[in-house]
Amino acid sequence: MVFALKNGVCGYAPNKPILKDINFDVSSGEVLCILGANGAGKSTLFKSMLGLIPILNGVLTVDNESIAGWSRAEIARTIGYIPQANNPPFSYSVLDVILMGRTAYLGLFASPKKEDEEIAEDAIRQLNISRLVDKRYQELSGGEKQLVLIARALAQLPKILIMDEPTAALDFGNQQMVLNQIHKLSQNGLSIIMASHFPDHAFLYSHKALLLKDGGIYSVGRPNDVITEESLRDLYAVETKIINTGIQPRYAATDASDIKICVPLS
């Protein structure tokens, strides 16, 4: 499976595009990390990929088939979305939140069936969060909430996961918990596109990195090739030293011989 955007122009009005000439693809089992300063257009790109706003130009494809004519339900069965945070106004149970991922497969007034419950339970087992099932969603920690949102997306049985800064506002331990699950999901064949403000995460967990700047692609390619001290200075206006730690990477996603970390100098 290959998910691709070709010659994409994204924005909210035809005469005021936010992004132009966006080209990338991500295959089954790959993680693409999108980096860029606030306002670079990451959210606009995500909304376009999810069909929440129309692509102004270009074509979004799954295995070379344009998804422009797909219904919202068809898109939801193929593309799962995990927002930065989700705080529903009602006190839902964890299981109820995960079952919401089955909405794309249900009729307008239908209730989840046994098959839907089994799929939700499989997502719970896959993420090893059975300990959370009897809790209320609002009672969970930030990292636990993110895992539940990932389980909800998995219940959609998608081929692609889009994740908007999945580690935002999480402490160090919860960041690692979520990122470890992202790695496992890619190993299971899911295509994952995630936005991040942490270049280190791209080095550790991504096969590709896409850097956005000034309404377009600054560069796209392997993290070791495109994430450089120069590119980080251009993207974030911060002098940065990239250090090779000498530690062997744990994850197959990285092509580095050792782990790299980014240290800001100013």
UniProtKB/TrEMBL annotation:
Alphabetized InterPro entries for the sequence: AAA+_ATPase, ABC_transporter-like_ATP-bd, ABC_transporter-like_CS, Metal_Ion_Import_ABC, P-loop_NTPase
Keywords assigned: ATP-binding, Nucleotide-binding, Transport
Pfam families in the cross-refs: ABC_tran
All copies of domain ABC transporter, residue ranges: 3-239
Any one GO molecular function term: ATP binding
SUPFAM superfamilies: P-loop containing nucleoside triphosphate hydrolases
Highest taxon listed in the record's lineage: Bacteria
Gene3D superfamilies according to UniProt: P-loop containing nucleotide triphosphate hydrolases
Protein name from the UniProt record: Manganese/iron transport system ATP-binding protein
Classification lineage: Bacteria, Bacillati, Bacillota, Clostridia, Eubacteriales
